[in-house]
Design brief:
- The protein has 199 residues and is an alpha/beta fold.
- The chain contains 8 helices and 7 strands.
- The chain has one domain: Vaccinia Virus protein VP39 (Rossmann fold, 3-Layer(aba) Sandwich), CATH 3.40.50.150.
- The chain is 33% helix and 24% strand.
Length: 199
């Protein structure tokens, strides 16, 4: 089954794997991310911060937040599943690099997203959607996972498959600073590295 899913990802985009995405993503790896809402709450100083998740997929991570929440993803199939399974959020189908809204959020969250985007200048657009003192929070796979991800990709067991940009932490923090974020920090919590910066 994994091979079929991988082939669909390569040839049909994320729409074709939307129905099985949650089941494939749940487990140890994703459960490690359940600390994200607590960290965002700590950074914003709010128990129920308003959140925009860019690259939300089927809304799994977004569902762990309790305040006003909006998810954006380029896959209509992923958003369709998100609306059906997690209807307590607003969703939009859009390329995160060009997405804009007049709404302001306490936090913009990106989980396992920037490793698929070549040009990180889009982070300045995320800054424009933050309320005063809002925080950009990024969870990116640790570079220590590179051999395991390479192997899983070769075995067609990774979702999504394909090109993965392994960036050094300094590259990500530099891109955040270039986008105008202040007090940029990083913290390693395997299997992720967390980054945050304030509007």
């Amino acid at each position: 089954m994994a091979e079929d899913i991988s082939e669909k990802t390569e040839h049909g985009g994320h729409d074709s794997i939307a129905e099985v995405y949650d089941n494939q993503k749940k487990g140890w790896y994703m459960n490690r991310l359940k600390v994200v809402p607590r960290k965002v709450s700590e950074l914003t100083g709010k128990e129920r911060p308003s959140v925009l998740e860019m690259g939300c997929g089927t809304g799994l991570v977004l569902s762990w937040f309790e305040g006003k929440k909006t998810g954006v993803d380029c896959s209509a199939g992923m958003i369709e599943v998100a609306k059906r399974q997690r209807p307590d959020a607003k969703y939009a189908v859009s390329d995160v690099r060009s997405f804009r809204t007049r709404e302001k959020f306490d936090a913009v969250v990106m989980v396992d997203l920037i490793e698929f985007i070549e040009d990180l200048s889009f982070l300045s657009g995320a800054r424009g959607m933050l309320a005063d003192g809002g925080v950009l929070f990024i969870a990116n796979a640790s570079p220590k996972l590179r051999p395991a991800v390479w192997l899983l990709d070769k075995m067609k067991r990774k979702l999504p498959t394909g090109k993965w940009l392994w960036r050094k932490p300094q590259e990500i923090t530099a891109a955040m600073e270039a986008a105008g974020f202040r007090n940029v920090c990083s913290e390693s919590r395997f299997p992720h590295v967390y980054y945050w910066g304030f509007e």
